[in-house]
Amino acid sequence: MKNKKVTIILIAGGTASGKTTVAHRLANEILKDKSVTHISMDNYYKDFSELTFGCLTFL
């Protein structure tokens, strides 16, 4: 089995600071010859409208 080099790039920042834009530009421009997996945290948490009232009491 051939060893493959893996590069992981993490992008952090405040709300609406451009993290997703930077991630997309990296994937499209800089890394276009590579296999890219983009894992977004935007869809990780449920929207408050999806929570039951009982869950909201803990917030």
Describe the structure in your own words.
This protein has 2 helices and no strands. It is elongated and about 50 Å long. The chain has 59 residues and is an all-alpha fold. The model has no long low-confidence stretch (mean pLDDT 76). The longest helix is centred in the middle third of the chain and has 12 residues, at 19-30.
Describe the secondary-structure layout.
Elements: H1 19-30, H2 53-56
Number of strands: 0
- Tell me the series of helices and strands, N- to C-terminal: HH
Mean pLDDT: 76
Biggest β-sheet description: none
Shape field: elongated
Question: Which labels suit this protein?
Answer:
single chain; 59 residues; mainly alpha; 2 helices; elongated
Question: Would you kindly provide a brief summary of this structure?
Answer:
The chain has 59 residues and is mainly alpha-helical. The chain is built from two helices and no strands.
